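Researcher: Here's a chain I'd like modeled. Treat it as a single chain, no partners, no ligands.
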Amino acid sequence: MYSDEMPEETVSPVDEQLEQTVVASYLVNLSSVIADSNNATLPIIKMETNRLTELAYGYISPVVVLLTIVTNTLVCIVLLQKHMRSPTNLLLVAMAISDMFTGLFPVPIFVYFYTLGNFRDYVPYDWCYAHNALTIHLPTVCHTASIWLTVALSIQRYLCVCHSLQAKTLCTIQNIVRVIVALYIAALVSQASRFFEYSYTPVELTSLVGQGTVIGCSRQLIKFFEDNIEVVYGSYWWFRVVFIHLVPCTSLVIINGLLFRTMRNAQARRDMLLRQNRRSECRRLAESNMATLMLLAVISVFLLVEFPLAILLITLIYENTFQCLVMEKEKRDVATLIINLIILLSYPVNFFIYCGMSRQFRETFVNLFSTSQYKRQTSTSAWQSMELQSKTFQTNH
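Model: Modeled as a single isolated chain. Structure tokens:
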């Protein structure tokens, strides 16, 4: 995340504190803007850090991102197997890709500045645009897509469970692909203007860590943003908090509640089928319930990490709109750091949910990655199990 403490005449009250704290939302407080000693009006980008952020973003985050790349790649490989392809699984693959790239884009910044210790000097001119793009704009695009993909997943599952006839027409693979593409395009459009909000100028500066000089960069809002700063950033932040956080989270809570109620009714029906000794129907219903429970777990993890971020954004917008202090800056910085890490740590979790709650995923994974001897021992039972589950896991999904 960035600290946009521009010269006073160019900074709006609404935008300044938000840019300092949550521009990247899921990432890192990477820079502050300081005045060059030779020109008090020139904003020069320099990293803002302390020992906690250095540890979190220089060492913990790259390791977590590496784990995310491994787990989410495995998720994609398993779910894209021919017998596993289904509308639900395509949404899960798209979510895995979005989460992976949300964490992956900032890694060059993490490694170059924090792991290698270059945060002590000014941000080099060659890194200035990449600094914003990799730690703010691209991760925000990916995370926005992931949020709405999660909403699409919950709606799709609700239709399959509660309106199965309509789902057969609406929830086809072709339609789901269209939804995924549309959500990625919408996520990119929602952030498109921010890729062009600053102009950067190379500036020769005395190095902070040596005797020589370094080519740093100054940045200035382009004229349109500077002339309309209150309207542009006020609209942007309210749009973001409402349509990228509040509406999706509220929708997910409602749909999750409906799915949970439906699952309880299905469990009662399963108990009745057991009493009537209708074991085949009972087994299919149990597998459908497990699939729904697995998706509820995925959505619940998502909500658990998204709500704190939404609350933080609302708090900051409230502070800047009504000019009142709700949280001290030091506490807000710590809260931001913790929220960023929790969100990052949540990305590899889905792989373990799938392994623990989906027998078909587990057995496909074993057949893909286990030794040949173990494959021969398990292949028969695995494929029999997949055949029994396929109608539930694919048609119902």
